[in-house]
Amino acid sequence: MLNSTLIKDNIDRFNELLVLSSSNATDQPEKADTKAEAIGYAVLGCDNRLEYLFPLPVVVLSWRRLGIDALVILIGTKEQFESDIKLNYVLSALRELKIRIFFLNSSMAESFTLAQVSRLYAAALEGLNLSDSTVLITADADMFSFQLSEHMPDLRAGKKIFLYNSQCCGKMRRPADSENYPHIPMNTIAMPVALWREVMGISPNMMKSGNGSIVATRLYAEFGKALVTGPGGKGSEKWKMDQNLISALLHRWIKKKFAFLPCPLNFLSNAQ
């Protein structure tokens, strides 16, 4: 577990990596509407756990080095992050990087669950304002990325979905399902905004500012309230709800989309 001493010891080294610039109270970079839109965004979710939160600004920089901006979803309120010295240190670093930060909060699910699953619903964030063709990439807050080809579909070849290591984990089944389906790991799933909305059954601005209850409500419907609110930590079924959810929804979407034809190979990219 990272502590305040470790944070203090790393301030000077960390500041050398930051691209310092002003930020505003909305946590959206100035002139965002006139800035050329990136081809893709890494979607990073995190609560107040320092072992995930502290590496986050450097992870953002690793994506920026590849030409990919970041959308950061922080679980909690802006006031909670600003009033805590450790949380505010990281928040200030993120603001200095001029990335887009969204705060979500809900009492209907644990913060780690919201941090994980909210990445799947990024295309529903209020004020997202991205074109339908912009690619959103699910990514981990504590994982550095070094090669863009391992995270982006080859759009020039007509590929729309990129799955990393999708053959890693065999078949899986959620409690309410009557069939097995491929287990897709969360890092990386990349699709254009329009396709995310289609697969997830969401619409623009559906997730109102600060309100993460839509995520919890969807989880209740898919898994039952008992699992979502019950005990469970790292390694449990509760910890894997994000993977279970996208695996099921993407499997259903492919079956529906290509009901009478096999899924064309040129539609999917997959790295192992």
Please explain how this structure is put together.
The protein has 272 residues and is of the alpha/beta class. The chain has a single domain, classed as Spore Coat Polysaccharide Biosynthesis Protein SpsA, Chain A. Helices cover 34% and strands 15% of the residues. It has 10 helices and 10 strands. The strands form 2 sheets. It has an 8-stranded mixed sheet with strand order 9-3-2-1-4-8-5-10. Strands 6-7 form a two-stranded antiparallel ribbon. The longest helix has 17 residues.
Structural class: alpha/beta
CATH fold-level name: Spore Coat Polysaccharide Biosynthesis Protein SpsA, Chain A
Note the main sheet: 8 strands, mixed
Shape: globular
Low-confidence stretches: 1-26, 30-35
Helix content: 25-40%
CATH architecture: Alpha-Beta Complex
User: Could you spell the SSE succession in H and E letters?
Assistant: HEHHEHHEHEEEEEHEHHHE
Determine the mean pLDDT.
Answer: 82
The figure for the number of domains is: 1
Task: Estimate the strand proportion.
Answer: 15-25%
The total count of strands amounts to: 10
Number of helices: 10
In short:
With 272 residues, the chain is of the alpha/beta class. It contains ten helices and ten strands. The strands form two sheets. It has an eight-stranded mixed sheet with strand order 9-3-2-1-4-8-5-10. The chain has a two-stranded antiparallel sheet with strand order 6-7.
